[in-house]
Specification:
38% helix; 7 strands; 241 residues; TIM Barrel; 15% strand; seven-stranded parallel β-sheet; alpha/beta
Length: 241
Amino acid sequence: MKKLIINADDFGYSRAINFGIIDCFQHGVLSSATLMTNMPGAEHAAELAKENSGLGVGVHLVLTCGEPILKKHKTIVDVQGRFRRLSFYESAFNVDLDEIYDEWKAQIERFKSFGINPTHLDSHHHINTYKGIRDVFCQLAEEYNLPVRNNMGLPDHLCHPNRFEYYVENVLKDEASIANAFQAADSVEVMCHPGYLDKAVVEGSSYTYPRLDELELLTSDKVKQVLSNCKGVKLATFKSL
């Protein structure tokens, strides 16, 4: 049986995002999520995760949104003490990789302090794929013995799905699209960003209205039927890898 992991990023961003993700799990086809432990909605997300134990929940490691958990950093924050924006990393950049290691380890430990165990690791804005940062990400995955998102070249010893898909609307379009995603793959992760909108999202995120479209897609009867018709594919979490 082939394994389809439909993972919602940004769990913990805000209460509206959290409720949207849980609705997609309870009333749709979502099987997994990753939690931003530094964001205001993190504790609320953890409470919802405990109430919905069938939802696989990993850590969405953050370096480009909100404030860090540790307050000692000098190179990965701006003068206000907030994380630098993604644009900082899109040109030549110079940061202390030890700061990233310490911060991300603190984010993982905060996740565990909520009383839940992470299923896997990925990162906000795919920052784990950037120069030098990739090595920190892989080191932490190895230390915590956790599977990871397959969005970059990975060492053979790290566990990950065979394939990673960026666009949930393309994969879940119809039975043929799902079959195409599983060509030469027994496990596929599809990324998504469903959620409702509140002030925190509208004012803080560049990705707003499309979250509602994704929520509608993931809870639609059409998509449920498409997956039901794919007899050789089942919804899964990173725990099953």
